[in-house]
Specification:
The complex is a heterotrimer. Chain A is about 30% helix and about 30% strand. Chain A is built from six helices and nine strands, in the order ββββαβαββαββααα. In chain A, strand 8 (about 175-180) and strand 9 (about 185-190) form a beta hairpin. The model of chain A is unreliable at about 215-230 (pLDDT under 50). Chain B has three domains: about 5-60, OB fold (Dihydrolipoamide Acetyltransferase, E2P), CATH 2.40.50; about 75-135, Beta Barrel (OB fold (Dihydrolipoamide Acetyltransferase, E2P)), CATH 2.40.50.140; about 145-235, 2-Layer Sandwich (Ribosomal Protein S8, Chain: A, domain 1). In chain B, the strands form four sheets. Chain B has a five-stranded antiparallel β-sheet with strand order 9-8-7-10-11, with no helix packed on it. The mean pLDDT of chain B is about 85. By secondary structure, chain C is α+β, with helices and mostly antiparallel strands. Helix content of chain C is about 30%, strand content about 30%. In chain C, the strands form four sheets. In chain C, strands 1, 2, 3, 4, 5 and 6 form a six-stranded mixed β-sheet that branches. In chain C, strands 12-11-13-14 form a four-stranded antiparallel β-sheet. In chain C, strand 8 (about 165-170) and strand 9 form a beta hairpin. The chains are: A alpha+beta, B alpha+beta, C alpha+beta. The interface of A and B includes residues 19, 239, 251 and 253 of A. Chain A: This is Exosome complex component RRP46. Chain A: InterPro entries: ExoRNase_PH_dom1, ExoRNase_PH_dom2_sf, PNPase/RNase_PH_dom_sf, Ribosomal_Su5_D2-typ_SF, RNase_PH. Chain A: It is found in: Nucleus. Chain A: Belongs to the RNase PH family.
Amino acid sequence: MTATTAPEAALGVLPRADGSAKYSHAGYTVTASVSGPIEAQRRDEHAYEAHVDVVVRPAAGVGGTRERHLESILQSTLAQIILIKNFPRSLIQIVLQVEDSPENDYVNTKLVQASLNFAIMPALIQTAVLALLSAGVPMRATLTATAVAMAHRDGAKKTIVDPTPRDIETAQSVHVFAFTSRDELLLAESEGDFTVEEWDDVCETAKKVCCHSAPAKEGMAMVLDDEDVGGPDMRQFLRSTMKSKVDADLHWK
Amino acid sequence: MATDLPLVLPGETIDATLIPSSQKHPLRLGPGLRHIPPSDIVPTAAGQLITNPVKNSMWIEYNSNRYTPSQGDIILAQILRSTGDFYLCTLSPHTAPATLPHLAFESATKKTRPVLQPGQLVASTGKADGLGPIGVSPGSPGGCVFDVSLGFARRLLMARSREEGGVGVLEMLGGEEGGGLAFETAVGRNGRVWVGSESARTVVVVGRALQETDRGGLGMEGQRRLVKKLVRDMR
Amino acid sequence: MPREAEPSLNEKQFVTQALQENLRLDGREFDQYRPIELNFGDQHGVADVTLGKTRVLAKATAEVTVPYTDRPLDGIFTIATELSPMTSPSFEVNRPTETEVLLSRLLEKTVRRSGALDTESLCLVAGEKCWSVRVDVHVLAHDGNLMDAACLAVVAALRHFRKPDTSMAGGVLTVYTPAEREPVPLSWLHSPFCVTWSFFGEDEGEMAVLDATWLEEQVRVGSCTVSLNKHGEICQIAKLGGTPVDAVALLQCTSVALTKVKEFSDLVDRRLAEDLKRRDKGGFMAELRAENDR
């Protein structure tokens, strides 16, 4: 099946969790639940701030070191934007369940040991942020994230936003970026061979996708941006998703 | 009204013209906002920015499920266990227990303090004042407690919940549409509503009406239809 | 991890009191299920079951591996159930609870031991190569009756699943990638489903209720899970502790269970047919399948 290009999200999909979101983009589908602030276990308890616990669960197979690595990156990223000092000695738990990831039709994968792809990180971050917003957990800022691959095609360098597994396989390097709503770079993870100039290029492209200043007219903006940078306007997407949630919650006003 | 006031996301800058500037009172910030000295006011939750120029206050209106304790809130707590001088009670699932002194109930002394069993419900204010146990007096029915979202509980607690909060189910159930059902309720800000009645059937109908109004986001007309349907099914 | 919240005394008393008056808190009949939804993902082998507020996702996968030495002619089939903190914060990663153990045991007995999947068909080269089929069950939300929802999800996922096509020529085994050859379905023998009864009241299964919610499960005095297929062949009956139940009442339960299982079976068939239609835009799939048959 063809991967969806436009990001899609639904909030509050799990009625028993405090906050939840289902997000799909570029073939990845992730569901997240947020519980908190709740009682922390003694070993996770911090005297002055909340403990942020991130659990990443692959769709098939048991999680391994790759998942633990992703969890630790996400944990430190999300702890930056959640106002953890507001809830000392408590726990904010974020569980990310991968439902679907794009398959490479040209390779048969080994599956018992799940190996989550590096490029799934933007989807994980975006789902976590949406779930946190849906739970109403106090936050310093929102995040938008994207993955960009740098490939050499026919002697020319090419940046690919939201690369497919096939793109990643043939790419020189893959980069994941997350920017806060104040245009600050919060996360930059890279894999592969690249030069400093290349990284600057890629960073610039990612910034365009993540931080495009949203014009007032919604529908128009989406169309224009697609032509501009070859990726969706993430910030506008976040805003319109939240707008529909808040409108539904406050219909009685 | 819903479209007039702006949607804000965490970390966005609030338009300075929207911040009320009355000289009489100091500016009061409600839920969902934080003050970064010297003069920045930043939202911390996604919701609608509400301002009240008369009281010189502003807050973010949003709905959520997890109750964060705050002073003066009326809540329905559940007794976990009793220690020497305190009851330990839960306000919401999976959170650390809150303490409620045995002597916090009105005119309670060492001899007259209420004896509560684990699992019993008690109404309380956020200042650890016990208002009284719920649904335990010998003659009255035990009733049942239903979980609703925090926003819905706030709407039920509004002084004029029909006009301001847009909740009319309870009035309808007790009035013409519901055929005058007899029941009593107690609403806690922690998202729990206790419903008591002589008839178990009434409790079920009231509980379902509340939960479905909350979950379905029903307007006045929707609530009227729901009440009529539930009362019809009941017979 | 924080302990699971207990229902209040009022709730516990009221649930039983209401049942005595023939009432359930959500207004259902005693033998009525909550609305069931079954959806398939974009990939083959992903089934998402929603039963009221309970939600279970099952994903089937396959890979080539070496068969067990004591069963050289059989493939490997495993069902993995792990309850994550998403189900409830009281579940901890890598620390199985009783709920989790019971769930995985029952799924094992219902689906694996009943021979729903023909494991011999998974064998590629006797004693050397075979398919290992694995189903991962993810419980996204738990509002009671995990058993029935999980079983439905597992069966639906396996029937929806397609494994890569293989061929044997001159002692060389070739596994084709999806780009080379359209993957093929598993060899499926019968579809068992679980139906769980919950018992209430002092007297030997005085009141029996289907599809209990989480609150009802906390209050019940016993439960019984019957697994059977639409032909009425019973795979297993599990009655783990609780108050004793009259044998006649239990027989009554199994006959009602059969009508429910027929409904489940129809639901899975219907949704699979709809999904096939959705994928088969412009008759392209039929063309591919014809090639594979030759």
